[in-house]
Design a protein that fits this description.
Oligomer: single chain
Shape: globular
Strand content: 15-25%
Number of strands: 7
Radius of gyration: 14 Å
Structural class: alpha/beta
Distance between the termini: 36 Å
Helix content: 25-40%
């Protein structure tokens, strides 16, 4: 059985690394779709995809349309504990998930305005709590967007 390690763009602007795979991966690889991912899985995956869209969308107010129409052209979900080879930002969500990346050599620094979020701009590494509304509120997402904006992330 072949393991599917990535869903979305093979050259994403941002790759979100998660420890668990959603249902229906084979169909998602062939035709990535936020709605298909949400329909085939639990509310948990709707929250993850929504938070990913809120972070990646070039227009913060337009995240819903971006999630439904463009997300997987600009982002990817990765399920391996190894950074993909793409020249992109790498978002690792959750402390337990970060531990899977043992050889990573984390040198990310916490954001002064949001110490739960750390960034290493040289390695394009974003470390956050697990992507869940309780841990990544709209305020935290705003801080993430501001930090990524300082590094010209939204120039696509």
């Amino acid at each position: 059985m072949t393991s599917i390690d990535l869903v979305g763009s093979p050259e994403p602007g941002l790759a979100l690394y998660l420890p668990n795979r959603p249902h229906g991966l084979a169909q998602l690889v062939e035709s990535p779709s936020s709605q298909r991912l949400i329909d085939a899985n639990s509310n948990h995956w709707r929250k993850i995809v929504t938070l990913l869209a809120k972070v990646v969308s070039p227009d913060a107010a337009d995240w819903r349309r971006f999630r439904d129409e463009e997300l997987f052209r600009h982002a990817a979900l990765c399920f391996t504990p190894k950074l993909c080879d793409a020249a992109c930002w790498h978002w690792i969500g959750g402390k337990d998930n970060l531990q899977r990346f043992g050889a990573l050599g984390n040198t990310a620094l916490p954001l002064p305005e949001c110490p739960a979020v750390s960034i290493d701009p040289d390695r394009r590494l974003l470390l956050t709590p697990y992507p869940d509304y309780r841990q990544l509120s709209n305020e935290v997402v705003s801080h993430i967007r501001a930090a990524l904006g300082r590094y010209r992330f939204y120039q696509f």
